[in-house]
Automatic annotation (TrEMBL):
GO terms for molecular function: hydrolase activity, hydrolyzing O-glycosyl compounds. The keyword Hydrolase applies. It comes from the Bacteria. InterPro entries: Glyco_hydro_43 (IPR006710), Glyco_hydro_beta-prop_sf (IPR023296), Glycosyl_Hydrlase_43_Enz (IPR052176). Keywords: Carbohydrate metabolism, Glycosidase, Hydrolase, Polysaccharide degradation, Xylan degradation. It comes from Cohnella fermenti. This is Glycosyl hydrolase family 32 N-terminal domain-containing protein. Belongs to the glycosyl hydrolase 43 family. PANTHER family: ENDO-1,4-BETA-XYLANASE, PUTATIVE (AFU_ORTHOLOGUE AFUA_2G04480)-RELATED. The lineage of its organism: Bacteria, Bacillati, Bacillota, Bacilli, Bacillales. One of its GO terms (biological process) is xylan catabolic process. The keyword Hydrolase applies.
Amino acid sequence: MTNRKPALKGEWADPLLLRDGEDYYLYPTKDSQGWLYEKFHVFRSKDLIQWDGPYTALDLNDVGWAKSRAWAPGVNKIKDKYYMYFSAEAQIGVAAGEVLDRGAERRYGVLQVGAGESLRSVLRGQGEGPRH
């Protein structure tokens, strides 16, 4: 089957694809004037062709140390918790929670973990061992 249509409407960049069970989650960066965008979004699909969303995964207005330049999220699931590493205002942060795809329903903590921007920060490691 050949599908020549874009998977998502609009201007999106730096996508990260996460498979969780039967669902696929796509976490892109929203292209905006001057990269001053303040939200991270997620789309959900069962077949990688039809996508639901965008849903707000993280709004920088909920982050005390950054207000714009949201880009390049990296998302991992460990046990029943999701971790989103992200860049904003030349800082690196992490959001952790049980849900990262349902807008206002999610509740998580957000930490500033370092200075300097990173394209695609993700956790590495398997099992119960250390992660970095």
